[in-house]
Amino acid sequence: MKYSLAEIAKQIGAELRTPKAATSTLAPEIEGVASIASANSADIIFLDDPKHLESALNSKAAAIILHQDPAKLATRGQQHKPLLIAAHPKLAFARAAALLATPGAWQLGVHGTAIVHKNAKIGLGASVGAMATIEDGASVGTRSHIGAGCRIGARVVIGADCSIAPNVTIYSGVTLHDRVMVHAGAVLGSDGFGYVRDVATGKYEKFPQQGRLEIHDDVEIGANATIDRGALDVTVIGRGTKVDNLVHIGHNVRIGENVVIAAQTGISGSSVIEDEVIVGGQVGIAEHVTIKKGAILGAKCGVPSGKTIQGGGMVYWGIPARPIKQHLKEMALLARMAKGEKRKRD
Amino acid sequence: MKYSLAEIAKQIGAELRTPKAATSTLAPEIEGVASIASANSADIIFLDDPKHLESALNSKAAAIILHQDPAKLATRGQQHKPLLIAAHPKLAFARAAALLATPGAWQLGVHGTAIVHKNAKIGLGASVGAMATIEDGASVGTRSHIGAGCRIGARVVIGADCSIAPNVTIYSGVTLHDRVMVHAGAVLGSDGFGYVRDVATGKYEKFPQQGRLEIHDDVEIGANATIDRGALDVTVIGRGTKVDNLVHIGHNVRIGENVVIAAQTGISGSSVIEDEVIVGGQVGIAEHVTIKKGAILGAKCGVPSGKTIQGGGMVYWGIPARPIKQHLKEMALLARMAKGEKRKRD
Amino acid sequence: MKYSLAEIAKQIGAELRTPKAATSTLAPEIEGVASIASANSADIIFLDDPKHLESALNSKAAAIILHQDPAKLATRGQQHKPLLIAAHPKLAFARAAALLATPGAWQLGVHGTAIVHKNAKIGLGASVGAMATIEDGASVGTRSHIGAGCRIGARVVIGADCSIAPNVTIYSGVTLHDRVMVHAGAVLGSDGFGYVRDVATGKYEKFPQQGRLEIHDDVEIGANATIDRGALDVTVIGRGTKVDNLVHIGHNVRIGENVVIAAQTGISGSSVIEDEVIVGGQVGIAEHVTIKKGAILGAKCGVPSGKTIQGGGMVYWGIPARPIKQHLKEMALLARMAKGEKRKRD
User: Fold this and answer.
1) What pTM was computed for the model?
2) Strand duo B127-128 + B109-110: pairing
3) Min distance A21 CA to chain B CA atoms (Å)
4) Which CATH architecture has domain A5-100?
């Protein structure tokens, strides 16, 4: 999509300031966003850190989104690019990018090689890629896209404006609400890891894994992530939550809204992650844990079984996870002692 | 499948007690299992924790599996549901679930879009899903199911009653025995991570990864897990072992029987995990390690190269893994010292 | 492929010594490589550890690659196998294996069920497996193989002699140079994990993930690994780098040449890994980290955001990663104190 700078300014809530020097050379239409280094003359860039001002001004970009005292720029005498003044330049830039994004080049409708069960429903404007399979009773909402090679199980419900990348598997009965984005290779609704041991024989017998998985609006799920269905009840991913690549979410987990979970984190069965929690990469959360609203778990920390982690912006780190100040103090003390001991021995 | 309560009691080895008050309303046929909260009138539930007795009795369920002094219940005067008395209610419940489970709704035989090499064999009652490919010399045992989009390499042997979910890749020459269950996206028999460095050039050259992978009866493998073939010899997963999502098992690893390995654990080349070991989530086991029979490795612990971990129910934790008591004592000491130091400074 | 011992010796730069006793029984042609235990009479084996000399000599193998004082062997009086004397036996063995390897049994050309866009180019001697899809403007180089069920996005460039295993997804615009090997289920070029939070609403909005991914010559990528495209710029994997199963590499990461990254390691956005770095399994590298040339990161260590790790063969361990000697000293001190305290209390 192409837009004029004035139209973009309006859409992203920025104020457009066009220096006189720029009027003649002003690109009539903006075609995309870019980094300072890679920008072309039809791109918009943004300035997050003042130290890049010089290179931003010297870039080929058509315009700069920034949060800035323009007077200060003016005194530099060299300002000849249009500026988009925004309270939060990075957010404004993200919105400009969304506005300018090329829509997926998917052919509408069902590809000739896809197999859609006669009882499945495909919404208006939806598309189903080559070799995809959609089973009995499944439905794909309006304008949603199912990638090539996806396996959509029986009675799966996919809402409107969802985007499912290639080779994703969704087990039967899973529900995705609207604007859910799933990256390639992710598996949704697989059996949870639940067994009962027969002590007489030593064998593990499978506990039923027949529950559901429900993924709410605006969730994004990373490549090769796995989310298990509930055992008897439901696994839930709340609205607006973002899940990175290779994350594992176990059965019966309940995740709130606007939670961020970085790559390779694992969340065991029946744990609860409340709204607005931030989870770093490679974090491990054992079963039956509660992470309270707004807590921040540092990368690689581990929360043992049954624990409750306080929220409200508190930061936790370590294995087992404890308040970061406490953990850092312990580590610093140990480092000092080890150093001191070395001196004593020398 | 539907069964009468009497038939289920017989099959799962429980004793059926039907209170007089219940006889008239007794559901003629049980259709499934459920949680207390979600049960309908044709479902069985189970009671693991006495604190849920009240809600179990008040649920819609047709009957309750429990391990219980029935006299105590009788005195409550409110008992009007049939009971199934079992020594291990959760195990009895799992067995009832297996009994009542709906068989996969797969069409028997080979889907019209699957490609089965003329030298491959498909057993009686087996099914091959849409778009699956089965290469030269592979065989699929009786009643086994190959999901849509699976890639079954040359000379792969799949036993009887196996269930392979969609989009699984099995490299050439891998053997699965009977009743193996593999979840979506798993990769079996990929090349191990073995290279030899040419010190003259600094380049890594590939060490041959031409060995086999053998997976014994009753193994279950989680979604997007990866198990490498042996380099020159064989990688083995023993009978009854359960492997969770996103687990990595390297080349030449030998895993015994009835081992449980939780999500995102990684086991490096040539390590040996003996029978009945329990491995928590995100555990790291380096190469040439031995974990003795019955050892328990706590979540996120790490076992360095070449170490032997004692078995017999001993629990290990930490990085590097050490007996959990020792690890906890060290952590507690450090925490006390850090606290004490704070007081001293105040 | 079959070769005589003399030809193999020449190709791998080893010196062939044929004892008189062996000449009559000398296998005319070598067919493969094997371990000592599994070798047949047409196989070559290698000796890395002198303690296996006896079993190597007693094996069925046709010849042994070794680095050895042959006089010492001669005095044993039992030496009757041909020997291939090499400065680095394991490397010579790896090269013999490469020489003797059976080429992939792929049918040349495009499988009848694959879908290749009319604007895509397939090189001479290349092969595209069943059910694969290759989109608009993509190109596959000479002699490269695309496995069954792979999804090759628009404008993807795949060089010569690449091997892409089944069910791999490559997003649009990714470039692979020559001799790149990608294992099953890997995802290349997925969106990075980048959002901007609107503090007013608490919602995370997607930061554009429109950059590229470039993978240089001789890289190998493990099963179910995920590598994200750049956000605005490029993610780069340097020549000769080896990436194990289930590794995650985030957006804008730049990895140098001949780097080795073991299974389940995660590298966050915008980090730089210089040439010849060795990264153990389950390592976590946060964003904006620099790992200098030749550094060694022990398994499970964690490098916090923004840190620089010194190179030149230095080994780091722990969370946060510190020089291994310091980390081990601290751990030893703590263990001694915890033990001492116990004695004091007894």
Assistant:
1) 0.96
2) parallel
3) 55
4) 3-Layer(aba) Sandwich (3.40)
